[in-house]
Amino acid sequence: EVQLVESGGGLVQPGESLRLSCAASGFTFSIYTMSWFRQAPGKEREGVAAIYTGGGSTSYADSAKRRFTISQDNAKNTVYLQMNSLKPEDTAMYYCARGTVPGARYPLIGKFYNFWGQGTQVTVSS
Predict the structure, then answer these.
(1) Strand 46-52 and strand 68-73: pairing?
(2) Distance between CA atoms of residues 47 and 123, nearest Å
């Protein structure tokens, strides 16, 4: 059974950092696109970052560039999102997601992902 379990969220002040983790199981981890999305109440879900080919390449939304870093530990079947210089507008539920077809390099569009975690809450507030 495919499972994605996020952790690492919490309440932080602006300018601080968090590292989110997504522990994956039930599939060959390194051959799928793995991505982070986020959704705030009343807003649409938006893609944040994607990682491909077991960490060989990455893609970021404009809002995440220069502040966030996605990485992948294939031995641990875990995807990370290092978030630095957090802003209040980063407040959202963060989800990890797995692309549908192995080997495909998917953009940050939700319809291309067929498994999702339950999410971890990130709140940035003073």
Answers:
(1) unpaired
(2) 17
Q: Any idea of the CA torsion for 78, 72, 102, 118, to the nearest 10 degrees?
A: 40
Q: Model confidence over 86-109: pLDDT tens digits?
A: 999 999 999 999 999 999 999 999
Encoding tokens for residue 39?
A: 């959704």
Amino acid 115: pLDDT:
97
Retrieve residue 2's tokens: 């495919």
At CA 91, angle to CA 32 and CA 3, rounded to 5?
30
Give the count of beta carbons closer than 10 Å to the beta carbon of residue 103: 10
- Angstrom distances, CA of residue 3 to CA of 15, 68, 86, 87, 114: 32, 24, 28, 30, 11
Q: How far is CA 108 from CA 17, 51, 78, in A?
A: 23, 10, 19
pLDDT of residue 55: 74
